[in-house]
Amino acid sequence: MQRFERSLLPLAAVCLAALTLLGCPPENVKIAAVLPLSGDAAGYGESVRRGIELAYEEVQKSETQQTSLQIEYVDTESDPGKAAAVLRDQFRGGSLAALGGVTSGEAKEMIAVVDDLDRILLSPSASSPELTGISRNFYRIWPSDFTAASKMASAASELLKVQSVVVIGEQQPYAKGIQSVFAPAFESFGGEVLDTLEFPPNTTEVAGLVERAISFSPDAVYLAGYAPSIGALIEELRAQSFEGKILTTSAFATAAAIAEVGPEASGVFLTQTVFEHDSDYAHIQKFVKAYEEKHGENPDIYAAHGYDAMKVLAAAVNNRPALPSEVKKGLRDSIKEFPGVTGSIQFDEKGDVRKFPRLYIISEDLLLLDYNEQVQEMKERMREKQEEIRRRLERLRKEAQQVG
User: Fold this and answer.
1) Which of 3, 89, 259, 391 suits 157 as a labelling partner, its CA being 20 to 30 A distant?
2) Bridge partners for 75 per DSSP
């Protein structure tokens, strides 16, 4: 059956090319959005879907978009095996390219399908370092965890003055990728990883894990995994009165995940790429406003990446023959410093983007705040207070001289 599918692809390509040369390109280019809309990763998938939908609506209205798009959403149920199966079905049904691989586990299975059928997969959020250069048909707009884990290692050591860490990680590709980078990077800064404790995905009974981690008396714990497990670990660390710092990843950077944990999430540190709701850039302001009007809340980092993924793919296929090879050319040639809401987007030769994460802290009112900006603001307040004290002392000195 697979050989038969592949044999049809050249014929379909010839037909589509002929139509294009005749000036009659297909009315719609079909795009598949293969996302986890139920199951354990549904929180991420739903945010990504909202971002894609908003971008799709804008693309359809755009005067510069000459190629009309048709999008179909498919639920993977957070199952990597099903993600691969439904992706294959979508390509059989005529999809030219796909948005998907929200999690690294799903992306890894889906890449085998796009390689088999020579199609394109553009991931909004898969981040495992092992995906770098894995396929010429795979692109992603979320940076590799190599940069995020390296940033946390340097920030923990240099900014937070952490000297010892226990890593607690899920046994899945995303968390393993994070751990594989963080531990040696942290040690290169002179820190010590006291132990690495792993647990099966979706574990919520974590009292024993936390008790063991605390027994090492670390300055901090680093939690690598997806939001449900991270949330359970944070709650248990607070319940067991852990006094060190809690470090984690962008997987916890959703409003729903933070709200689920509540006040106990305050003070948690995480790294993520820059996405500023109050940015001065007009295209970011437009996105935030449109999202708020539609959903009644601020977009999170996953919605922003879903939005950018749709915009990038639309630009890549615009005004080109409806051929898989042309999608690849479009991603390589048309996407040059693309002005995404998550930053400038350009793919390297391995299909990765170059973005640089920052350190964030969750505030008492459960907002994500740039830690460096908070430190600078605090320093500025201290300088202002010191200046006020200096002026007051100077005034008192002058008054004393006048009395004398």
Assistant:
1) 259
2) 35
Cβ atoms within 10 A of the Cβ of 47, count?
26
Q: For residue 274, what pLDDT is reported?
A: 84
Query: Helix (H, G, I), strand (E, B), or coil: what is residue 26?
Result: coil
What are phi and psi for residue 137, nearest 5 degrees? -105, 5
Where would I find the beta strands (DSSP E) of 267-310? Answer: 269-272
CA distance 95 to 97: 6
- Based on C-alpha coordinates, what's the Rg of the chain? 24
Alpha-carbon gap, residue 234 to 57, rounded angstroms:
38
Q: Give yes or no for a contact between 174 and 145, defined as CB atoms under 8 angstroms apart.
A: yes
Mean pLDDT of 104-121: 96
Is 332 exposed, middle or buried (CB count within 10 Å of its CB: 0-12, 13-18, 19+)?
middle
Quick: pLDDT tens for 1-50.
444 444 445 544 444 444 444 444 445 899 999 999 999 999 999 999 99
Q: What pLDDT digit, counting tens, does each position of 207-229 carry?
A: 999 999 999 999 999 999 999 99
Query: Residues of the chain with pLDDT > 70: what percent?
Result: 88
Q: Is the dihedral of CA 186, 354, 363, 38 positive or negative?
A: negative
List residues bridging with 166 in a β-sheet.
195, 221
Chain mean position to CA 114 = 22
How many angstroms separate the CA atoms of 274 and 110, rounded?
27
Which tokens in the block code for residue 109? Answer: 């299975």
pLDDT of residue 145: 87
